[in-house]
Amino acid sequence: MLQINEAYRVLSNAHLRKEYDKSLKDGGPFTATMPAAPAVESTAAAPMRAPSKMKVGSEVADTVVGGFSREFKKDVTAASKDFKWEDLKLEGFDWGAVASSWTARYVIGMRGFGKADMPSAKKFATYCSLAVESNHHPLKTTYFLFFFGFQKAVDQNVPVFMRRFCANESGERAAGPACVVLMDVVRRKSLLCGPRPKDSRYDKLLHSLGMAR
């Protein structure tokens, strides 16, 4: 709770948000310090207090992405009303959901990271593999859509890695059709990685989320 409060304190203050954005751009540490107040004359002597400092850095990033992830789940279920979503426990994910039709199942999940680097991408791919293996249906085709949320992009190889993860030589994962969406939660931009399965309801899901290509 303290980290959440600190995150909102930083992001709701124009000066602190500016300094935080600068730290993301420069790649340096961020210290949540307010600028010194202008000097005023006073007839009574009062003890001086040093400005409070609290290094938040990655804690703020992780908290912001986690908060966005929870809100995004509400957006997904609200936008894709033709799907009757049920909560699904997916190891390593912030949340997961599943919807079914007579012939298919649709599994979605999201995990947020402070930054999109290769260690995070490999960890995310591991969780995706576990989700595919544990939710593959013997009678129905199961389609997977995984959201990789991040606040700071640091490695241009991540999209390439995600595309390779989603497709094999034939253009589709053998264990089940899967796509990964890279989501920049600061700039509100997304990138769909992987071959899009040939399924009308899957297309409808992507359209409802504004991610059809």
Give an overview of the whole structure.
The protein is α/β, with parallel strands linked by helices. The chain has 2 domains: 2-56, no CATH class; 64-208, Restriction Endonuclease (3-Layer(aba) Sandwich), CATH 3.40.91. It has helices at 2-11, 14-26, 58-79, 118-135, 157-166, 200-208, and strands spanning 86-87, 95-100, 104-116, 141-153, 178-184, 189-193. The chain starts with a helix and ends in a 5-residue tail after the last helix.
Brief summary of the model shown:
By secondary structure, the protein is an alpha/beta fold. The protein folds into two domains: 55 residues, no CATH class; 145 residues, Restriction Endonuclease (3-Layer(aba) Sandwich), CATH 3.40.91.
Distance between the termini: 39 Å
CATH C-level name of the largest domain: Alpha Beta
Q: How would you state the average pLDDT, rounded?
A: 75
Number of strands: 6
CATH topology of the largest domain: Restriction Endonuclease
How many structural units, i.e. domains? 2
Helix content: 25-40%
**Helix count, DSSP H or I runs of 4 or more residues:** 6
**Share of residues in strands:** 15-25%
Q: What structural class do helix, strand and pairing data support?
A: alpha/beta
Q: Which architecture of the largest domain per CATH?
A: 3-Layer(aba) Sandwich
Radius of gyration: 21 Å
Pick out the low-confidence regions. 1-5, 37-57
Largest sheet: 6 strands, mixed
SSE pattern: HHHEEEHEHEEH
* Strand arrangement in the largest pleated sheet: 1-2-3-4-5-6
Shape: globular
